[in-house]
Specification:
This protein is of the alpha+beta class. It is built from 8 helices and 20 strands. Strand 5 and strand 6 form a beta hairpin.
Length: 366
């Protein structure tokens, strides 16, 4: 497994950034935080574009920078690819010529332009000028160009920020495909938690120039619920097996443990969702405010989702209460009023029923 050691700080007139983390890199790692939290500063430091830092960065036991020994490997020699928010392509060249330029700079090619054109679905656009492409198409070219440099680590700095929803969905799926086929760790920076929840395996949370959390993305999101940092909308982050893509009424069925189920609109599934039920898992989330609690089983109700769980935690947050309810091994997070909690006399270890509409089970697109 790839490893990245980050132990450095950067100081500007109005902003200080400091981090001391040893990261095991596997799959796609999300970097999350509000504007000004230090996301782009972190990427620039790893890529070798930040010269004002002090400390050490090493990747797989190769020291990239160590200011104590005056060691600094230049960006072009780090084998770290960086894709910015804007594509930064050569506008006077075609798609193919942009990619060929990148391939020529790689001394030991194991990838070829033709294969990368196919992987990034750019074959029909190969002979078009960059200025003739949409924003989403230009970002695909930027990704392809970065890949052809054959980096050991790929950094994406908010690559979807200027795109519409449909283009974002296509590019997210492409990023997943690239990571799986090329098996390189990817740092994905975004201030959209919905994007990251859809594709990332782990997540690093930054706040005001400091690392707040790092770990499994679902666990980190759930920890942020309790930390009450106002960084996210409190929610339950899910990755559930798909039992059926359509129950005959336009609803997909997800397995919630061995005995319970969760229904969501079938139209909310990604367009390229696999039909192999044995390996399919659906990334989705439910806002804590979209779940409700009942002490008795809701039999005659238009709300299609209702399942049982045990209250494991009760946190009072002003006039609201955050409940953690365990449904087997899956925790759910529910916000209710303090009035409702007292009215129902809810207690730890009490069994309750959770309810939510199918439309409350959301994906990045919906």
């Amino acid at each position: 497994m790839d490893k990245l050691k980050l132990s450095f700080q950067v100081s500007y007139a109005n902003f200080d950034f400091a981090i001391n983390e040893n990261l095991d890199l596997q799959g796609i790692i999300g970097i999350y935080g509000h504007s000004g939290s230090g996301k782009s500063t972190l990427l620039r430091a790893i890529a070798g574009l930040e010269k004002q830092l002090s400390g050490e960065i090493s990747f797989n036991n190769t020291v990239l920078v160590d200011t104590n020994s005056n060691k600094f490997i230049n960006a072009e020699k780090r084998q770290v690819g960086l894709v910015f928010q804007n594509a930064r392509l050569f506008p006077h060249l075609t798609v193919l010529e942009n990619l060929q330029f990148s391939a020529k700079r790689c001394k030991k090619n194991t990838l070829n332009v033709k294969d990368i054109l196919q992987l990034t679905q750019l074959q029909p656009l190969a002979n078009q000028l960059i200025t003739e492409l949409s924003g989403g198409q230009q970002q695909r070219v930027a990704l392809a160009r970065a890949i052809l440099a054959e980096p050991k680590l790929l950094l994406l700095d908010e690559p979807l920020s200027a795109l519409d929803k449909a283009s974002k969905s296509k590019l997210l799926n492409l990023i997943l495909t690239i990571q799986k086929q090329l098996n390189i760790p990817i740092f994905y920076v975004s201030h959209s938690l919905d994007e990251l929840q859809q594709v990332c395996d782990k997540m690093l949370v930054l706040e005001q120039g400091r690392a707040l959390q790092y770990g499994n993305i679902h666990q980190v999101i759930h920890q942020l619920n309790s930390d009450n940092h106002a960084l996210i909308h409190q929610q339950t982050s899910l990755a559930l097996p798909v039992k059926s893509y359509d129950n005959g009424h336009g609803l997909a069925i997800l397995a919630l443990g061995k005995e319970q189920e969760l229904l969501m609109p079938a139209e909310h599934l990604p367009e390229n969702q696999s039909t192999d039920l044995a390996s399919a898992a659906m990334r989705c989330f439910i806002l804590a405010s979209d779940l409700s609690i009942s002490l008795t089983e809701p039999i005659n109700s238009s709300i299609v989702n209702h399942f049982t769980g045990i209250i494991s935690r009760i946190e009072v947050q002003h006039n609201q209460v955050l409940l953690t309810i365990d449904c087997g091994e899956q925790p759910f997070f529910v916000t209710i009023s303090l009035y409702s909690q007292q009215k129902l006399d809810l207690k730890i270890k009490q069994q309750v029923y959770l309810q939510c509409k199918a439309s409350a089970v959301r994906t990045f697109i919906h």
